[in-house]
């Protein structure tokens, strides 16, 4: 069975399969069903009257109430069944069967089909209401666990998208968060190993820990260390009731974007590198020595801060590995960097929507993993006063990291 996939964008809209859900087809379905049922009723009735009496078409009218199963209400089915009964009577009388047991049998068949349609529609409606309630709970949990990031934060424009590959679910194990700390925006994007409720539980824990330590710790590397310690404590506690808890960890990027300097500072904890557009150039912000994923107990020295240029009108694309690992029917991976290069000039919101739509098309509508994507564009120019005051720090810091091709 193909999993139903959902996307929650930073505007709060829920889309399916990368495209906005359109309810027009759903609304037209009952009308189309009634039109087809009416056409069958008219065609079979006229045909039964026209053809010779030894060709009995009245039995085909059982299709009329069956076709109304897609209609929304009981009145439609009952009305069409009543008309079909009149039609079968007309056909049977024309065929000389008004004294035959065939006439009541044909009418009884119509009534039985009508009753079955009504019963199964009732069961379907109960299932739909249950599913709707589950989806409402899922959406509420999604908003509580992973609320869309603000569209604007300081001098940044932000757009987010989240796709859960779980059937009829909006939540999973991918996470993102952003916190405004003094004159800096700190961000997190991560991917919890595993799936199910345990992954959701770990995702909620790491987001809560990030929101706390982002304000408490001064140095970015201390934020990563605190996150790792928090995840390890949770793994140790879970180990008392789950023998596989030791296998749980979270890959993550921890970032900070200062207001006063055109840079982004990144710590990678085993997470896929982010992408950056600068003018017409697009590249990966490759971290040469990533730290272990959160929860595996990396040493404090492993959490190295990597600094990259991030100037006005530059765009960062943060993502989880679901974006890179999506395959087309031939088995080819999604060319994320190439697609980002084509879309990087778009506004973040449109960039995200078009990227996720393109991902869906590439994967044939069957993306098998959760995908979280965050686009960040710097709008406000760095403060001149701040740059002059600390300009002696910016140059050497950038030169220390030759992997930054945009420096």
UniProtKB/TrEMBL annotation:
Pfam families: SpoIIE
PPM-type phosphatase domain boundaries: 153-378
InterPro entries, alphabetized: Bact_Sigma-Reg, PPM-type-like_dom_sf, PPM-type_phosphatase-like_dom
Disordered: region residues: 382-407
UniProt keyword rRNA-binding, yes or no: no
Keywords: Hydrolase, Membrane, Transmembrane, Transmembrane helix
GO function term, MF aspect, one: protein serine/threonine phosphatase activity
Class in the EC hierarchy, top level: hydrolase
Keyword Transmembrane helix: yes
Documented EC number(s): 3.1.3.16
Residue spans crossing the bilayer: 31-51, 102-120
Protein name in UniProt: PP2C family protein-serine/threonine phosphatase
Organism: Streptomyces kaempferi
């Amino acid at each position: 069975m193909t999993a139903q996939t959902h996307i929650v964008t930073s505007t709060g809209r829920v889309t399916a399969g990368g495209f906005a859900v359109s309810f027009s087809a759903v609304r037209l379905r009952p009308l189309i069903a009634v039109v087809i049922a009416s056409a069958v009723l008219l065609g079979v009735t006229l045909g039964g009257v026209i053809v010779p009496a030894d060709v009995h078409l009245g039995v085909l009218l059982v299709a009329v109430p069956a076709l109304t199963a897609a209609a929304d209400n009981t009145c439609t089915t009952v009305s069409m069944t009543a008309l079909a009964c009149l039609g079968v009577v007309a056909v049977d009388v024309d065929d000389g069967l008004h004294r035959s047991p065939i006439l009541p049998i044909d009418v009884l068949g119509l009534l039985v089909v009508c009753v079955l349609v009504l019963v199964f529609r009732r069961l379907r409606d109960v299932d739909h209401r249950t599913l709707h309630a589950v989806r409402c709970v899922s959406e509420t949990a999604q908003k509580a666990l992973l609320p869309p990031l603000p569209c604007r934060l300081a001098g940044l424009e932000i757009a987010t998208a989240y796709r859960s590959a779980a059937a009829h679910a909006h939540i999973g194990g991918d996470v993102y968060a952003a916190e405004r700390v003094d004159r800096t925006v700190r961000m997190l994007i991560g991917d919890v190993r595993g799936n199910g409720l345990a992954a959701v539980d770990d995702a909620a824990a790491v987001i809560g820990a990030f929101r706390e330590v982002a304000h408490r710790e001064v140095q970015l590397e201390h934020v990563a260390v605190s996150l790792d310690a928090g995840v390890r404590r949770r793994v140790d506690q879970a180990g008392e009731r789950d023998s596989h808890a030791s296998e749980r960890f979270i890959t993550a990027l921890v970032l900070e974007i200062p207001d006063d300097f055109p840079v982004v500072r990144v710590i990678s904890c085993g997470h896929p590198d982010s992408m950056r557009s600068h003018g017409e150039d697009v590249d990966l912000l490759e971290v040469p020595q990533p730290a272990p994923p959160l929860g595996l107990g990396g040493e404090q020295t492993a959490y190295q801060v990597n600094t990259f240029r991030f100037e006005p009108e530059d765009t960062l694309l943060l993502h989880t590995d679901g974006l890179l690992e999506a395959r087309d029917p031939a088995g080819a991976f999604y060319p994320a960097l190439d697609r980002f290069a084509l879309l990087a000039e778009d506004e973040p919101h449109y960039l995200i929507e078009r990227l996720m739509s393109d991902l869906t098309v590439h994967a044939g509508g069957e993306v098998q993993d959760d995908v979280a994507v965050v686009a960040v564009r710097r709008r406000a120019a760095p403060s001149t006063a701040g740059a002059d005051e600390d300009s002696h720090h910016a140059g050497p810091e950038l030169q220390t990291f030759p992997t930054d091709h945009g420096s």
